[in-house]
Amino acid sequence: MPWLLRFLGQCTPVRARTNAEALARLLSQTYTGYEPLLEDAPKARAMINNNGCLYAYTTDAGFKGAQADITLRRELGVAQEVLDPRALESLEPMMTGKTVGGVLFPESCHLQNVQGFIQALAEPLINDGSVIKTKVSKLQSRDDGIFIECSDGQQWLADRVVLAAGAWSAQLTAQLGERIPLGTERGYHIEFDLDEPLFTRPTCPVENGFYLSPLSGGRLRAAGTVELAALRDPLNPARIRYIEERVRKIVDTDKPVARTWLGFRPTMPDCVPVIGPSRKDPRVIHAFGHQHLGITLAGITGQLVSACVRGQAPDWLNAYSAARYRRLFN
């Protein structure tokens, strides 16, 4: 309830516009943010499919209700093409007879192997021994550095710490005395193993609240919906059934569901990520709260974190600091 009340406070037209502008500023730097990483990871670059993504509306009311969003994106400089049913169906024949029109985002890309992409980016760091996999249980500010204690007994004293623990980040900031209203949007995923791809790009039947994304090996992933719940709460089978039932109304397949799982989207009440030095200790740099845009904004977030470490962060980054919520949780 506390998170929902803060979220409600962000639902005015003025606040929604301000938050959309903040996200658009980061999104406009998605590709430039990734470019230095991709230069060192050609395997990762090869996994990027640059053929856009689609919003497909299934009802006239849904398409009509989207016009304000289309206008806002146009004002924010987002590349988009409004499509009639015939144009959309020519791109994705599986949607034939199931759409009244939609929006193509031609500059969007998608990954057919998300895990492989992340592993390819990490490969140079793994090879030179820079990556240590462990679980942090304690974070503490000291005069001589930031003390880190791990569940396996390892201890570290760091000059700088980048706190990028996703949905678990607020548990660690609290140990530094900084309470941050980070919520969790739980998203549900199901996958089908198909004989051949049914889509060529991620396609969202908007009224259903999920994306249909083609993956490597003929897999089709249906992922989406939003469930506000705690990290410890179990998976809700009704959410899985909801997605499967609606997927089968769109996709002509009798294949069984091959895999299901639950993911956690770390979300601030204004849906804007937290990037920048901690108010309690500037040696700790925040990088979390990216909600549905974690991989999308990882590159530019990394560049901004690097600028913070060097003491060269741009002035506009102050708008993304957790300090924007200080009146709510002091």
UniProtKB/TrEMBL annotation:
A Pfam entry, by short name: DAO
Domain FAD dependent oxidoreductase stretches: 9-306
Gene3D superfamilies: D-Amino Acid Oxidase, subunit A, domain 2 (3.30.9.10), FAD/NAD(P)-binding domain (3.50.50.60)
Cellular component aspect of the GO annotation: cytoplasm
InterPro entries xrefs: FAD-dep_OxRdtase, FAD/NAD-bd_sf
Name assigned to this protein: FAD dependent oxidoreductase domain-containing protein
Organism lineage: Eukaryota, Metazoa, Ecdysozoa, Nematoda, Chromadorea
